[in-house]
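Action item from last meeting closed. Structure (389 res):
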């Protein structure tokens, strides 16, 4: 994966159209397509703009303007966002209301998850995020006023500790879901009919690597070649697969269940990888890549995460990589890479070394180094499990 030393991004401030001309241009729509996401603004870097997150299909949005291939959508009186036009279809049947209502809520345990169901009168936009110390899942619902006086919490709950809300604006409801364990294991947030359902993954009963399912993603592949080495012309897509197979081999030796996103040089669309992984539901995803820089002097290893609740694993793996003499390129948060986007399972991206650096590239092509990196990743996984016990 190529790394640009200077990343340029900006956020466009939210605005609400105040004149009649803009109001006349607005129309109601619904989200559609494969994994639609909403963005804070029109800022761009090589991985796209900063995102609020993925959002379900069928969610109602008010389109108030457009810019290029993006619609500007109003979420509430004081909040707006941007979404690619291909992910919105017009809805001529929905009539705009000044606000919608939440009704009764229920939380119960079911099949390895704790599930909070929020009764709504419409599929409204939302965003969610993780907090730590203590660990929480936070949700903001837009265009809604609470009419919730009944939150049923059953004894079958094993991960959700407390649920409460605050009406932080006239039409914005903030929901707090406190968790019992320090480590976030993932969650999904989707509509089932007009029920907004938060499914929180429970911490495994035994924090043993042999009891977990590890997904390994060999970065790039097929028509997406990735970076190339400057001396030996090593191809990222070829060597990420070799590193992935080395890790798979050593994990299977330890009787760990492994899922591979690819085992050959094949093209696999990023969103299709996400949907595949959501279906397989691993405990942990490790995405392996090789870095590149405009400067041949830059070298070393780095790890990446998007959500603060998933950071501990990325720190543990980076620490083990530095033990084998790799320079530190850093632990990078809020990373906007596709496979760091899902909240469903713990995920970490590892940039093993720089193909643009001669000494790093020579390590990459060495099978002994590939096996060594696999061992260090496994040590990092075990370090992380010991730390969260």
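Sequence:
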């Amino acid at each position: 994966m190529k790394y640009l030393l200077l990343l340029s991004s900006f956020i466009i401030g939210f605005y609400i159209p105040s004149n009649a001309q803009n109001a006349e241009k607005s129309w109601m729509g619904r989200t559609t397509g494969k994994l639609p996401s909403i963005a804070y603004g029109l800022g761009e870097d090589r991985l796209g703009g900063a995102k609020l997150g993925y959002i379900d299909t069928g969610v109602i949005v008010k389109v108030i303007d457009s810019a290029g291939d993006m619609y500007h959508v109003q979420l509430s009186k004081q909040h707006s966002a941007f979404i690619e036009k291909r992910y919105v279809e017009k809805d001529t049947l929905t009539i705009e209301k000044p606000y919608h209502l939440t009704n009764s809520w229920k939380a119960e345990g079911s099949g390895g998850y704790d599930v909070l169901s929020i009764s709504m009168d419409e599929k409204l936009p939302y965003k969610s995020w993780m907090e730590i110390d203590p660990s929480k899942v936070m949700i903001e619902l837009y265009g809604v006023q609470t009419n919730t006086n009944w939150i049923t919490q059953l004894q079958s709950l094993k991960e959700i500790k407390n649920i409460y809300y605050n009406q932080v604006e006239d039409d914005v409801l903030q929901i707090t879901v406190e968790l019992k364990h320090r480590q976030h294991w993932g969650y999904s947030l989707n509509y089932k009919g007009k029920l907004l359902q938060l499914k929180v993954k429970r911490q495994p009963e035994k924090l043993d690597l042999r009891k977990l399912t590890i997904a390994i993603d060999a970065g790039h592949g097929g028509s997406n070649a990735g970076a190339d080495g400057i001396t030996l012309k090593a191809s990222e897509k070829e060597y990420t697969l070799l590193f992935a197979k080395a890790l798979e081999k050593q994990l299977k030796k330890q009787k760990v269940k492994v899922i591979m996103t690819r085992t050959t040089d094949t093209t696999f669309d990023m969103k299709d990888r996400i949907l595949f992984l959501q279906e397989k539901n691993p405990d942990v995803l490790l995405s392996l890549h090789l870095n590149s820089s405009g400067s041949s002097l830059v070298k070393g290893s780095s790890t990446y995460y998007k959500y603060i609740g998933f950071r501990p694993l990325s720190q543990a793996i980076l620490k083990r990589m530095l033990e084998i003499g790799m320079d530190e390129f850093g632990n990078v948060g809020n990373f906007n890479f596709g496979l760091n986007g899902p909240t469903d399972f713990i995920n970490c991206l590892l940039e093993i070394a720089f193909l643009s650096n001669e000494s790093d590239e020579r390590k990459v092509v060495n099978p002994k180094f590939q096996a060594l990196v696999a061992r260090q990743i496994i040590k990092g996984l075990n370090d992380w499990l010991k730390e969260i016990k």
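Note appended to the action item: The chain is about 20% helix and 35% strand.
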